[in-house]
Amino acid sequence: MNSTLKRVAVACLLMFGLLMANVTYLGTVQAESLRNDSRNVRMLYSRYKVDRGWITADNTKTTLAKTVDTGDPKFRFEREYPLGKPFTHVVGWFAPESAAGIESAMNRYLDGSHPDLVVRRAIDMVSGKPAKGASVDLTLNTRAQEIAYKDLASTGKRGAVVAIEPKTGKILTMVSVPSYDPNPLATASKEKVNKAYNKLDKDGDKPLLNRAIDLTYAPGSTFKTVTSAAYLSDDSSRDENTQVDAPDSLPLPGTSISLPNYHGESCGGRATLVEALTISCNTPFAKMGMELGYDKLKEQAEKFGVGQPLAIPLSVAGSSIGKEEGKAELAKTAIGQQSNQMTPLQMAMVAAGIANQGTVMKPFLVNKVFGPDGAEIDGTDPEPLSEAVTPEVAGELTKMMISVVENGTGGAAKLPGKTVAGKTGTAETSPGKPSHAWFISFAPVDDPQVAVAVFVESGSAGNDATGGAVAAPIAHDVMQAVLGQ
Predict the structure, then answer these.
(1) Residue 350 in contact with residue 440, Cβ under 8 Å?
(2) Are 163 and 148 in contact (CB under 8 A)?
(3) Handedness of CA 304, 226, 288, 342 (dihedral sign)
(4) What is the bridge-based pairing of β-strands 258-260 and 135-138?
(5) Do the strands 55-57 and 135-138 form a parallel or antiparallel pair, or are they unpaired?
(6) Helix and strand element counts for the chain (H, E)
(7) Rounded distance, CA 9 to CA 14, Å?
(8) What are phi and psi of 443, to 5 degrees?
(9) 429, 463, 482: which is closest to 219 by C-alpha?
(10) Which of 157, 287, 304, 145 is nearest to 219 (CA)?
(11) Strand duo 171-177 + 93-94: pairing
(12) How far is Cα 223 from Cα 481, in angstroms, rounded to an integer?
């Protein structure tokens, strides 16, 4: 009898142990996957029980995302995006099973689950009130954002516009075209949301992509500012008037081909640095790149932020000048071709670093976070990312970029009563295919308030598009909007 009882007791203990192990496994290891399982209806309902915090801009003056009380007991609080398409790729959307943009990156503040809001959560639970999240104020200048979107969208072209405040790193505009209305993705109906999302996902123009930060592109001649920075930094005796070789074509080592200037233009055989950048000759900068070597060019690019991980707080694709190959490939890399790939955000950072006397600031989108009671609970303090060049080299680069706008290919970016510095770019993609069009700039030179990068994607810019003709006018309007002109 005792042995039978012992066996039963051991069996019960084993089963109890297995039960506890299973409960522990489900509560820890599988908790997250179960919580996010699309069949978990309780989680679906719980997403709509929270009075989600608002997303604003212009120091809370402009509402970009708000919560509406529907009165429905199952789906009480729904999201609305009053300004729509111009802000979609930054603000994102909040759907039954997912989220994007700031809605995703700042979700724990917006839904009230962040540790900073633990006291508020406890008060809401005790009082029986709906949980309320914090509001997030962004750095965007909404007027400049809307103008950037209108300008780019009205051309029917694909591309992106990024504007940064050089002294702080605040992102003032971040536009990606084509865009889409986020409101159909924010309804409580999974079926409607999935239908809307799938339609966007199948669109050949890929509107779901944020071209400002999700993809990288050949930067073309805008990268000559980085090559110039490396060349000037390599020898303190050099300045904008330093003479360099500028042949009509440059034989590429180890190949039977020569690198020409754009459209076969002549740069006179010799030119000063400022003349070479103004005319945007290819051959002198390709030769500089080979003379500097891969390591020095890569090091200079890294000082501008290339290759450094960024979260703004949105994830940013990594920019790169590519792997070390040969001299011929390095010549092309130095003029923004070959495997050289940059995000529009990165090229805006290059312009902002030069504008800020050589210091690149960490770019950021979140200005402040306010609790449900309106009190500030968090904010972003400007922080240097790197010292790209000395103030002296930044000054030389600025003079060269002023000449591009005043005397060269960037004339469309001129502003009345303000001195503008800029650089155009036309980046070849592949043989027989249209080029990318770029423009980077900053203004006013004597007290830079805004640095801009405009990118127009290959195939949509036109068969013979240039940064000066296609991208510079958009940069002009964005700078003008930021400066209040």
Answers:
(1) yes
(2) yes
(3) positive
(4) unpaired
(5) parallel
(6) 17, 19
(7) 9
(8) -165, 160
(9) 429
(10) 304
(11) unpaired
(12) 26
Enter the tokens of residue 248: 């009509």
The one-letter code for the residue type at 473 is P
Q: Which two tokens stand for residue 126?
A: 């005790």
Q: What are 61's two structure tokens?
A: 């003056």
The count of other CB atoms within 10 Å of the CB of residue 23 is 10
pLDDT in 10s for each residue of the chain, 485 residues: 566 767 777 777 777 777 776 666 655 666 566 555 555 444 455 666 788 999 999 999 999 999 988 777 777 888 999 999 999 999 999 988 889 999 999 999 998 888 876 665 666 555 556 678 899 999 999 999 999 999 999 888 899 999 999 999 999 999 999 999 999 998 888 899 899 999 999 999 999 999 999 999 999 999 999 999 999 999 999 999 999 999 988 889 989 888 888 776 788 889 999 999 999 999 999 999 999 999 999 999 999 999 999 999 999 999 999 999 999 999 999 999 999 999 999 999 999 999 999 999 999 999 999 998 888 999 999 999 999 999 999 999 999 999 999 999 899 999 999 999 999 998 877 666 778 899 999 999 999 999 999 999 875 544 456 778 889 999 999 999 999 86
Look up tokens 């003079």; give the residue.
Answer: 399
Residue 298 tokens, joined: 């890569």
Q: What distance in Å separates the CA atoms of residue 378 and residue 370, rounded to the nearest whole number?
A: 7
Tokens representing residue 195 in the block: 């239908």
- Position 76, amino acid: R
**Nearest one of 103, 149, 115 to 314, comparing CA atoms:** 103
As annotated, the active-site residues are: 221
Residue 9 token pair = 């007791």
